[in-house]
Amino acid sequence: MVSKLSSMDSDRVSVRLNSKSYALWEFQFRIFIEGKGLLSFLDGTSSRPTVPPSTAEELARWNQSDARVKAYILGSIEPTICLGLRLLRTARDIWVHLANTYTTADLARQFEIQFQLARLEQGDLDVTSYYNEAQLLWTEQDLLTVALCSATASAEVLLDRQRTRMMQFLSRLRPEFESVRASLLQRESLKMDGILAVLVREDTRLRTQAQLDVRPGAGEAVFAVAGASNTLGFGRLHRSVPFQLHLVVMKLLQ
């Protein structure tokens, strides 16, 4: 039963084509078809054999493989889109038609994503949630760029875009991150994973401090336990004191 389900899952892509998902769908579907060894039926390198000199068997095999690719396409797009593809004969014809139809929609989506990124701010979100929202938009924007530009042009655009994104991401953090933001901007080399690690640590510190500040006497209780360790008659802290301190802190954070 498991192997049967796995086989079914391998014959589909996770994203269905609709009016807004062409870039992501095209990216996944191309990889999917390449894995099946059928990419030549999409890129036009495998054309329909002519008879003669081709044999009827060769033509039948080609038609069967082409029909298989068409079935994969139709199984991964919205039913309303399928209706407009009935008169197209080959998988290549369908592939080109979809590209011509939805590339224009992708240009509109590019503008929409840029508008959403321009308005995105941290607000009440923690750093990780803020980053995840930005990352979703960045990923789709990159996929659209790859779909709309040549390989060379898209590589240059993506490289230049990384630093701009980091600057925008930092500039829209809440004011309490100003000190750590200034420190990050002084670094000669900035990478998003390193920036995120620093910001998550600062976010955790700020949230912990905020929880301690709202409890009257909470800070004094913690320092009282820490200070008690210095009154013990040992050359070093008693092994139970750190554990007691941990319990107090955990209690305060509940």
Outline of this structure?
This is Retrotransposon Copia-like N-terminal domain-containing protein. Helix content is about 70%, strand content about 0%.
| Structural domain tally | 3
First-to-last CA distance? 46 Å
What is the number of beta strands? 0
- Count of runs of 4 or more consecutive helical residues: 12
Work out the strand percent. under 5%
Poorly predicted sequence stretches spanning 5 or more consecutive residues: 1-9, 228-254
The backbone outline, from C-alpha atoms, is elongated
Strand-pairing-aware structural class? mainly alpha
Radius of gyration, CA atoms, in whole angstroms: 29 Å
Kindly state the percentage of residues in helix. Answer: 55-70%
Describe the biggest sheet? none
Average pLDDT works out at: 79
SSE string, helix = H, strand = E? HHHHHHHHHHHH
Question: Can you offer a commentary on this structure?
Answer:
The protein has 254 residues and is mainly α. The chain folds into 3 domains: 2-103, no CATH class; 120-211, no CATH class; 215-253, no CATH class. 69% of the residues lie in helices and 0% in strands. It has 12 helices and no strands. It has helices at residues 2-9, 22-35, 40-43, 56-74, 79-82, 91-119, 127-148, 151-171, 178-185, 192-213, 218-228, 240-253. Helix 2 (22-35) packs across helix 7 (127-148), helix 6 runs antiparallel to helix 7 and helix 7 packs antiparallel against helix 8 (151-171). It is elongated and about 85 Å long. 14% of the residues are buried. The model is unreliable at 1-9 and 228-254 (pLDDT under 50). It comes from Linum trigynum. This is Retrotransposon Copia-like N-terminal domain-containing protein. It holds the Pfam family Retrotran_gag_2.
